């Protein structure tokens, strides 16, 4: 299980356009903090609301020098449709093999547990700094209870104020 201060695991996914994306390689070129937002899928109304709220508060995250990356086990075509529908400007990655979700300990349930859209990952949020350190995590086992954009803003602001270099 990941702990605050651990090195954030690397992962390789494909972008919406099919280009390869390595998280650690990206961090070497981009010195912002990164908010990894794992969500259930395009079909989840709570997830859609969360992503829309993050988009509506994007200026706040930019002021905090935080880049958002959204990740779901849903298929790329569904996520691209969702991204377009909600005019999301941050990257949305498909992770059906759980290349990112598994090393971060994102909860996953098979289709034998719930009668809702089959097997899928659950919501989780991780804040990673420019030194690849995990600074914050919020891992859910169901769709509700996620921090709001305002809660995240307060948390990130506090972390940046108190973080030891």
TrEMBL record:
Residues 2-161 form the Thioredoxin domain. PROSITE patterns: THIOREDOXIN_2. Pfam families: AhpC-TSA (PF00578). Transmembrane segments: none annotated. Keywords: Antioxidant, Disulfide bond, Oxidoreductase, Peroxidase, Redox-active center. The keyword Disulfide bond applies. PANTHER family: THIOL PEROXIDASE. This is Peroxiredoxin. It comes from Fictibacillus barbaricus.
